Every structure is written in C-alpha cells, then in structure tokens.
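Weekly structure sync, notes
Attendees: PL (lead), two postdocs, one rotation student
Agenda item 3: pending single-chain targets
PL asked that the sequence for the first pending target be pasted directly into the notes so everyone works from the same version. It is reproduced below exactly as submitted, 149 residues in total.
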Amino acid sequence: MNLTKTLAALMIAGTAVLSGCASTNNAPQQVSYQNQNESASYGTIESIQIKQAKAGTSGAGAVAGGLVGALLGNQVGSGSGRAAATVAGAVGGAVVGNTVEGNRNEAKEEYQISVRMDNGDYRLVNQDSVYDLRVGNRVRLVDGRLYRY
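Predicted structure, written out during the meeting:
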C-alpha cells in the first residue's frame, strides 16, 4: 500500500516536470529559404558516358519454370522415384525459366553524366536518355534527373 502511494506520487511529480518542458508557443516560425542552397541544383555537364545496364530477372520465370517442371516430374515413376523426379523437375524448370526470362530482358543503355555543380560539388547522375544534353550544357538537377537550363 505504501509502495503504491510512493509510485503514484513519483508519477505525478514526473508528469508535472515533463509538462513544464513543453512549449506553449504555438505561433509558426518563419524560415527563409531564399538563395539557400539554390546553386546546388544548377551546374554544367563535364562528361557523358554510356554504360550497359545489366538485364535483371524478377524471379517470376524461375517460379513459373519450377512449377511446370514439378508438374512434369510428378508424372514420372512412382513412390520415392516420383518424389525425386518432382524435385529434379522443379529445380531444372526453375533454371530454365530464369534463363528464358533473362534472355527476354535485353540489356539497356544507361548514361552516366558527370556534372560540376555551381557550388563546386561534382555529381554523377545516371539517366536512361540524354535527349538534348551535351557536354558544356547548363543543366538543372530536379529529383535526380537533369534538364537543360
């Protein structure tokens, strides 16, 4: 009983102390972002290089191939031989399915653009096209993509 009263008193005191730390000023603070880091989004293209982006697989081909292989393997033999054929069919089908999916996804060209920003930093930006960008162009970096300025 005495312990309960002590804990209750400590909790009330702790709440009073913490509520004293809370700010009562609800007025919004005005922050000026004018010209702050404005130069960080503009720059000049230093170089453009073509990179081959690897064609990846999503795994859907492996899953579909594994299912087809398991169904075909399950048709062979009986008993433990059927189980082994099912597993072998699933593994073989997964390998074949992944290979087929990889062959369908062609490698795409990707452009690595080196930009000297106005604030002196260098940035490497990877894009899928450089439609109208050339070395020496003034550019603006917006959401990780370059646009002529």
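Discussion points:
- The chain is about 40% helix and 25% strand.
- The first strand starts at residue 42 and ends at 53.
Action: rotation student to compare against the earlier draft before next sync.
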